[in-house]
Specification:
The structure holds 2 protein chains of 2 kinds.
Chain A lengths: L1 E4 L6 E4 L8 E3 L5 E7 L2 E6 L10
Antiparallel strand pairs in A: 1-2, 3-4, 4-5
Chain B lengths: L1 E6 L4 H12 L3 E6 L18 E4 L4 H13 L4 E2 L2 H8 L1 H10 L7 E4 L2 H11 L3 E4 L10 E3 L2 H12 L9 E5 L6 E8 L2 E9 L13 E4 L4 H14 L3 E9 L3 E8 L5 H7 L3 H14 L1
Parallel strand pairs in B: 1-2, 1-3, 3-4
Antiparallel strand pairs in B: 5-8, 6-7, 6-8, 9-10, 9-12, 10-11, 12-13
Helix pairs in contact in B: 2-3, 3-4, 5-6
Classes of the chains: A mainly beta, B alpha+beta.
Keywords (chain B): Amino-acid biosynthesis, ATP-binding, Ligase, Magnesium, Metal-binding, Nucleotide-binding
Organism (chain B): Saccharolobus islandicus (strain REY15A)
Protein name (chain B): Lysine biosynthesis enzyme LysX
Chain lengths: 56, 283
């Protein structure tokens, strides 16, 4: 598990080591976040909102 | 065998494809669209694969990433032309109708006055749908001219890509369910009924429940005919059952979701798809 910071409230949360970029996680502050992988390091950013072109 | 998964949000389906691919002994790599960059004079990518499977949740990203990897010479399921025919409801409906596939009666208007005038000819209630859209979003039933006018106005001032093109369809008096049948290669291995007791829209995204589909010969033939016309390798076809006219093809999905289909049928779609795709690419 990797310890990361919520970019909205600064609180901590953990994600799996093998989390994929784009994976959604929800922090206890209510923020919907997505996993980002840059230079092999994981971080979080605010998740993209559902787009008009989303779906099947 | 090396398989590439093009994706932008790892849902159950994408994770299951990765897992099943590994179980089959394939090397599975993922390309996250938001990290994907391709210069027009560099016709190669970092991870060489034998085949790509398109799994972007965004239609725009799916279409463009399929197109780009095709330009690099890779086979992709589904190719961008199939996605164009699937994701735009006007293309789907009119291509199918031209090939005598039964579809709900539909018309396209480019003007509100025409939309209202011709909806009388179709007969109320009518259904208005965004030209591009999913999960039943903004699909609305108008019981009369007054309601339709409101919907047309809402659409006109929305942010839809085709906000000034009106896709209007008869309301098919179907049972409280529709059919989702999957085509994989040249086979129709599985499908579901999507039953909604509370809403005439039968998308599972809107609460419809999935039940195993009994695939008869007529349904199978129809689905394979649709696949021959639309193209592609992996399709989710939505079909209505009309009391008088029989099966009517409503929509075709080029990047279908299948979590509920797997669950209720106990059928491993990811494994089946991967095995068939590998057979196909080896030919």
């Amino acid at each position: 598990m990797v310890n990361l910071k919520c970019p909205i409230c600064g609180g901590e949360l953990t994600v799996e080591d093998d989390a994929l970029p784009g994976e959604l996680v929800e922090h206890e502050c209510g923020a919907q976040l997505e996993v980002v992988k840059q230079n092999g390091k994981l971080s979080l950013r605010l998740a993209e909102q559902i787009g008009e072109d989303w779906g099947e | 065998m090396k398989i590439g998964i093009l994706y932008d949000m790892p849902r159950w389906e994408e994770k299951n494809l990765i897992e099943e691919g590994k179980k089959l002994g394939y090397q599975v790599t993922t390309i996250y669209s938001k990290d994907f960059v391709l210069f027009s004079n560099e016709f190669n990518i970092e991870n060489d694969v034998n085949l790509f499977i398109q799994r972007n949740i965004s239609h725009n990203r799916a279409l463009i990433t399929s197109f780009l990897v095709e330009q690099l010479g890779y086979p992709v399921i589904n190719d961008h032309m199939t996605l164009i025919r699937c994701e735009n409801k006007i293309f789907t409906t009119y291509i199918l109708a031209k090939h005598n596939i039964p579809t709900p009666k539909t018309f396209i208007a480019f003007d509100k006055t025409n939309a209202m005038e011709y909806s009388k000819k179709l007969g109320y209630p009518v259904v208005i749908k965004p030209v591009e859209g999913s999960w039943g979003r903004m699909v609305a039933k108008a019981d009369n001219l007054d309601v339709l006018y409101s919907y047309l106005e809402y659409q006109e001032f929305s942010t839809q890509k085709y906000k000034d093109i009106y896709y209007i369809q008869e309301f098919v008096n179907k049972p409280n369910r529709d059919i989702r049948i999957f085509v994989i290669g040249d086979e129709t291995p599985v499908g579901i009924y999507r039953v909604n007791e509370n809403n005439w829209r039968t998308n599972t995204a809107l609460g419809a429940k999935a039940y195993p589909l009994k695939i008869d010969e007529e349904l199978k033939e129809l689905a394979l005919k649709v696949k021959d016309i639309i193209g592609g390798f992996f399709l989710g076809i939505d079909i209505f059952e009309d009391k008088d006219r029989g099966y009517l093809v409503d929509e075709v999905n080029g990047v279908p979701e299948y979590k509920n289909t797997v669950r209720v049928n106990n059928f491993n779609i990811s494994k089946f798809l991967l095995e068939k795709a590998v057979e196909w690419v080896k030919k």
